[in-house]
Amino acid sequence: DVKVTQSSRYLVKRTGEKVFLECVQDMDHENMFWYRQDPGLGLRLIYFSYDVKMKEKGDIPEGYSVSREKKERFSLILESASTNQTSMYLCASTQSGTTSSYNEQFFGPGTRLTVL
Amino acid sequence: KQEVTQIPAALSVPEGENLVLNCSFTDSAIYNLQWFRQDPGKGLTSLLLIQSSQREQTSGRLNASLDKSSGRSTLYIAASQPGDSATYLCAVLGTYKYIFGTGTRLKVLA
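Above: the input entities. Below: the structure tokens describing the complete assembly.
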């Protein structure tokens, strides 16, 4: 079974803090994704990575950065947290290739981040 | 630009009923379509993946169909149970990324 884990289920931070969200997958997947999920807006892609040290902006990258130093780990960084970044953050991974019809997304349990 | 719509947004049914959830998309150039289940406050659990060359997939009481030409997929749930209560999302894979619908919130009443 593919397992995607996220470092925290719940996180409370203050405005201006630097925040790190970690995601680890154990199935040697090449592609990893960070989404945020907000009521009425659905899932929106923040960043994705298709290889170690590679990253691509998604639909809403402003205020975020990412790091992928090892294949199994993809980190999302909020450089200076703001209240509008309060959200549910979801990490996902897929096996290989960006357009393979076999690619099935597997998600982690999510991190509920509150910025005060 | 690909858009994915799920109707209805919410559905409430008595236990035992067979039901159909709908997912429509505007651009038929997709590589696959995936159905997920999400429980409150949790991540997404993959239910079924339909590749673009396939017409349907089945898993237990679930059956998903895909009609690319009309931009539609349906998720059929047989003999619904209270444990099926959750939000169901569909997602299509286009070039490089997945586009999600906003989900159907299902409640199965005992």
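Note for the figure: Chain A touches chain B through 27 residues (CB under 8 Å).
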